[in-house]
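Much of the work behind modern protein science is quiet bookkeeping, done one molecule at a time. The protein below has been through that process, and both of its lines are reproduced in full.
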Amino acid sequence: MASIKKGDEVVVIAGDHKGSKGKILQVFRAKNRVIVEGVNLIKKHERKSQDNPEGSIVERESSIHYSNVKLVN
């Protein structure tokens, strides 16, 4: 896991998003997971707030296990 860090370009080698490329946005070392830009999108419901008076459904990246990604040169 030491070889993967924030900002690296990676390709997904396993799972539903196999073949997708993206940049690492965040690394969770304790959980052995990473967030890759544009990969594993989920829909998250946001509640009403002052910034968002209507509330909405937002797409966000979810984490994937670091063993499912490979560094790209």
Remarks:
- The radius of gyration is 14 Å.
- The beta strands are 9-12, 21-28, 33-36, 41-46, 56-61, 64-65, 69-71.
- The chain has one domain: 9-71.
- The CA atoms of residues 12 and 18 lie 5 Å apart.
